[in-house]
Amino acid sequence: MEFNQIRYFLAAAETLNFTRAAERCNVSQPALTRAVKKLEEELGGPLFRRERSRTHLTDLGKLMREHLGRVDATSQDAVVAARKLQSLEKAPLNVGIMCTIGPAQTVPFLSEFQMHQPGIELTLHDVTPCDMTEGLLSGDLDCALLGLPSAMHERFDTVKLYEERLVAIFPPDHRFGALNAVPLGELTGERYLDRLNCEFRDAFLSLLEERRVDISVRYKSEREDWIQNMVLRGMGICLIPEYSVTADGLPYRPIRDPELTRCVELVTVSGHLRSPALQEFVGAAIGFPWPTRPPR
Q: Which residues have a Cβ under 8 Å from the Cβ of 77 and sit 6 or more positions away?
């Protein structure tokens, strides 16, 4: 059964006149008659009954008009949906953002992207590195923003967006406030709030052990906002990416000796066919004026 057979039959069923139906479908009457005849053969019975100069639907024809009418409506809806998707009028896009990436740089980009592509329906997903990998490979995520200490697997393509320093956040009355930067050794003896979702956590703890910097871990949390507010209330200090600092009034200083940085990248699956929406998103990310150096 072909869609043109359905369309020709529905036109004939509405007009009850094969000549007018052929004119409506912009085909010759013999072509329309052959298509309807073929459809009758496939369905196993006549769809029309002719009595002198009048044409009527048979019981099978009436039944098929109802069913095939729904098929035609659904196919037309599918065509409209496809056109909207291709024209970015109503195109879904699922973007994973690693939970440690703050909004300071990401939100301005997303705001500009929405302004230029208002038809794209963007859904942001808060993900961990493990969730992100699974989501990308399964197709649940179209792309992701992340910052990892090591190179991505060869199955992924990456585009560098910006680099940011890791900074020490501390209470407003803390001694670090008198420093321009905090040497790593100055963390010795500090009460430390442990960010469990930090992608650099293992590497950072190993570095402290290597440098013989002893810290006192009193609290652990997966919540970035909780950690920052706990620091603000004097419960300890923490290391965090600079653009992830969101709590009002929370002071911070960059770490030095050594300076610690991370690179935030846009990740897609290598070899996957990109939707028009994803192509626009990647192009916009590449062209956006991301920061080229730490602000202070």
A: none
What is the phi/psi pair of residue 15, to 5°?
A: -90, -25
Q: Specify whether the CB–CB gap between 172 and 253 falls below 8 A.
A: no
Are the CB atoms for 163 and 186 separated by under 8 Å? no
- Please state, in angstroms and as integers, the Cα–Cα distance from residue 78 to each residue in 122, 199, 275, following that order: 21, 42, 17
Domains of the chain: 3-86 (1.10.10.10), 91-296 (3.40.190.290)
The model's pLDDT over 180-217, given as tens digits with 9 standing for 90+, comes to 999 999 999 999 999 998 888 888 999 999 999 999 99
Q: How many helices (H) and strands (E) does the chain have?
A: 9, 12
Question: Buried b vs exposed e over 155-191: b needs ≥16 C-beta within 10 Å?
Answer: ebbbeebbbbbbbbbbbeebebeeeeebebebbeebe
Q: Residues 193-208, buried b or exposed e (16+ Cβ, 10 A)?
A: bbbebbbbeeebbeeb
Q: How many residues would you count in the chain? A: 296
Helical residues (DSSP H) of 54-96, grouped into ranges? 59-86
Distance CA 172, CA 4 (A): 74
pLDDT surpasses 60 at 84: no
Distance in angstroms between the alpha carbons of the first and the last residue of the chain: 68
Question: Given phi > 0 = left and psi -120 to 50 = alpha, else beta, which region is 20?
Answer: alpha
Residues facing residue 158 across a β-bridge: 267
The number of CA neighbours under 13 Å toward the Cβ of 60 is: 12
| Residue pair 242/163 in contact by the 8 Å Cβ criterion | no
